[in-house]
Automatic annotation (TrEMBL):
One of its GO terms (biological process) is lipid A biosynthetic process. PROSITE patterns: CARRIER (PS50075). This is Acyl carrier protein. Carrier of the growing fatty acid chain in fatty acid biosynthesis. The lineage of its organism: Bacteria, Bacillati, Bacillota, Bacilli, Lactobacillales.
Length: 81
């Protein structure tokens, strides 16, 4: 499995843990509007991603994550550095 696919799977799993295991996640879904992820749930996702991928995600970068794809792209770029 490619690193990007691994990150997508990890983000999907995080969202499904918060929503429902049968919930269908797509990369273009809006984290706040469509998925209704509040700031606490979002921070849980961020902390998990930071710990799992050994990266630091500054608050200013979190605000720029609008969609699931934005989150995946961000982590993928940080991991590849």
């Amino acid at each position: 499995m490619s690193r990007r696919k691994e990150i997508i799977a990890a983000v999907e799993e995080l969202i499904k843990d918060q929503k429902d295991s049968d919930f269908q996640v797509t990369l273009d879904m809006d984290l706040r509007k469509e998925l209704e992820i509040d700031s606490v749930d979002l921070m849980e996702c961020i902390i998990y991603l930071e710990e799992t991928y050994h990266i630091d995600i500054p608050d200013k970068d979190i605000d720029a994550m609008v969609t699931v794809g934005d989150m995946v792209d961000y982590v993928d770029k940080k991991v590849s550095k």
